Amino acid sequence: MSAPLPQSVILDGRIAPNEWLSLADDAALPAGGKVIVSLKRFRAERAALDGSGVAIGVRIPNTEDVASLAQEVGAQPLIAVEIPKMADGRAYSQARVLRERYAYRGEIRAQGDVLHDQLFHMSRCGINAFELRADQDAQDCLRAFSDYVLAYQRAADGIEPVWQKRRDLAA
Fold first, then answer.
1. What mean pLDDT is predicted for residues 138-160?
2. Domain limits at 126?
3. Are strands 55-60 and 78-83 parallel, antiparallel or unpaired?
């Protein structure tokens, strides 16, 4: 069985149709389209998946060290990071490491307990696609990207931190 397909996602700061189906490990691979499979299934069925003609994204557990799998999944067009609960920030670190250390340029999608309050911070870490929790309004969530106008530290998004701006103004 596959997870229900959200009708839309937030992708690169806009509401977009969801083109990716999250596929359960025991679900049959469709004849075409785009699917997200678990890291476990990706590893077990790599040859069949590569030859299927289906675009394959990989969902990685937030407990996985991305340094150990960046070479393995880095060529996939999508990597989904799991957010099992709002207070768990390990996926933020995974996304930042993928973007900054391994120069991953594909889609990094947050799945799970994804809420308005997290979107700005997730995007700063390199996550560019968001499957919102069912009780979240996508239009309202778009405002999350403008909730803050200043950043206090460097991140994967390249926004200049406020301390750097102050230093530049003083120079």
1. 80
2. 8-170
3. parallel
